[in-house]
Amino acid sequence: MALNNSTNSNGANGKYAAEAHGLNIYYGAFQAVRDIRLQIERQKITALIGPSGCGKSTVLRAFNRMNDLIPVARTEGNVLFHGKNIYDPDVDAVEVRRRVGMVFQKPNPFPKSIYENIAWGAKINGYKGNLDDLVEESLRGAALWDEVKDKLKESGYSLSGGQQQRLCIARAIAIKPDIILMDEPCSALDPIATLRVEELMKELTEHYTIIIVTHNMQQAARVSDYTAFFTVKDDRTGYLEEFGVTKEMFTRPKSQVTEDYITGRFG
Question: If we measure between CA atoms, which residue out of 75, 78, 97 comes closest to residue 27?
Fold first, then answer.
């Protein structure tokens, strides 16, 4: 079943790009996260923060069914996208991943030219338009065009780490997703490249919704509109401790546990 394209089918007047309700995720017998409830506002940046092992990357991957690729993983609950639970049996996981793109922690360009890194995904998804235009548009969208326009036939590996990450972002937006998931996208980058990716993320919210996992509190405070703080119970199961507007959470957290983490007392 194809996913609905209506911008008004999910949440009040299309306010939410995606919603998680009662999300429980298991790896074999181990429960990684329990009863996660999140509403991801459209064309905003939502940061997922918390100590290692709290399940934030697991929750991130739940929004495009990447956990399905792990044989022992099992997901219960609903993730609504345009009003449809993406875990319903009639929903195609490949279609979900086309509509909800992913940028990983380490830049992972394909072993192809810069041009083919962008064009390949569009071609296999049946794109019928002008590929040259799409490549330029995507690279401009990732603030990379001016740096690579004269070397499109060169390998994606020829670029610097920061450029490679922006190439991966361009590759993600080339297939016109609604949401872009980013899992620690700056952890392998130097401060200057990190700043450029952060600036790019803010620019991208003109057209896209972004969910980012980060260990960097300063980064979460700088770039995100909303923050979800996860922590771990005694049984090592992750849960959502607090969710709200980033500025409010970082200045007036509702939970002592949240305050302790943000101020560096634990984590």
Answer: 75
pLDDT digits (tens, 9 = 90+) for 175-202: 999 999 999 999 989 999 999 999 999 9
Spell out the residues 6+ positions from residue 126 whose beta carbon is closer than 8 angstroms to its own.
Answer: none
Protein fold of 12-262? Rossmann fold (3.40.50)
Tokens 């235009």: give the residue: 133
Q: What angle do CA 44, 212, 76 make, to 5 degrees?
A: 100
Task: Tell me how far apart the alpha carbons of residues 52 and 77 are, in angstroms, rounded to a whole number.
Answer: 23
Query: What pLDDT, on the 0 to 100 scale, is given for residue 2?
Result: 56
From the CB of residue 213, how many other CB atoms can be counted at a distance below 10 Å?
24
Q: What is the pTM of this model?
A: 0.92
CB atoms within 10 A of CB 7: 14
List alpha helices for the chain, DSSP H: 56-62, 93-99, 114-124, 131-141, 145-148, 161-174, 191-204, 217-223, 246-251, 256-262
Angle 191-204/161-174 helices, nearest 10 degrees?
20
Beta carbons of 241 and 230 less than 8 angstroms apart: yes
**Hey, what are 221's tokens?**
């405070």
